[in-house]
Design goal:
Helix content is about 35%, strand content about 15%. By secondary structure, the protein is of the alpha/beta class.
Length: about 240
């Protein structure tokens, strides 16, 4: 189904992760048919736990595709983890720097090679107390506008039972129920050909995040909040604090 031959390190990653996932989780997947079998695609999941990237990767791999995550460059500095991320073709990003431009170039190249690029629009785990998606950053929208690749929303639920960002607790109890829903590509056609200015990118990003929110509401079987969560701005230290 569009899967190119995997290299040694990719197979090793699968051999390490897949058995653990099968022990730790009891999985339900919905909408797998919405993931295109070939060609470049951008997948935009919600992010509620440090465990959920594995829940995102599993159905993509099962569909015959190889996921390439965009993630903070600091993770690449962790021994062994960084090595495996490089070998499995994941993509680091340095925010607010010249390196961020290089990351965008890497993403464009991955899409044009027919890859599945996974971008968390929130950029971090959600700060919403009820774990609903936040307003997103505009990277996925920019990539979609530049490449024309479809944006496929994805929602996961249950990762918080393994790692809860609110309490920092980790549970390795086996067979935790987890659910993943993959939606139809988000209709962004009204912005095709537009210049990637801030207003356009923010409207596209909101459309993407609302699609993910609605998928999550179906998994949770409860109505979603009327608006996306707005994360509180980080407080800038005053002169006294900076000089202390």
């Amino acid at each position: 189904m569009g899967q190119r031959k995997l290299g040694f390190w990719q197979w090793l990653a699968v051999a390490i992760v897949l058995p653990a996932l099968k022990v730790l989780t009891k999985r339900r997947w919905y909408g797998l048919e919405n993931l295109p079998p070939g060609g470049g695609v951008i997948v935009t999941p919600n992010h509620m736990s440090q465990f959920d990237p594995l829940l995102v990767a599993h159905p993509i791999y099962a569909a015959g595709r190889w996921p390439r995550f965009l993630a903070k460059a600091s993770i690449w500095k962790i021994p062994f983890v960084g090595f495996m991320l490089r070998k499995t073709e994941q993509i680091p990003v340095e925010r607010g720097s010249v390196e961020a431009v290089k990351s965008l170039d890497s993403l464009i190249e991955a899409i044009r090679e027919g890859g599945v690029v996974v971008i968390y629009p929130e950029g971090t785990t959600t700060r919403d107390p009820q774990l609903w998606p936040m307003r997103g950053k505009t990277g996925a929208a920019r990539l979609a506008l530049v490449t024309g690749a479809p944006v496929v929303p994805m929602a996961t639920w249950g990762a918080q039972q393994v790692h809860d960002v609110r309490t920092k607790k980790i549970s390795l109890k086996p067979r935790r129920p987890v659910s993943v829903s993959i939606g139809e590509p988000v209709d962004l056609s009204r912005w095709r050909g537009e210049a990637p200015n801030r207003a356009v990118l923010e409207r596209m990003t909101e459309q993407i995040q609302l699609a993910t929110r609605d998928l999550l509401a179906e998994l949770r079987q409860e109505p979603p909040p009327p608006a996306l969560y707005e994360a509180p701005a980080r407080r800038t230290p005053g002169p006294r604090e900076q000089s202390a």
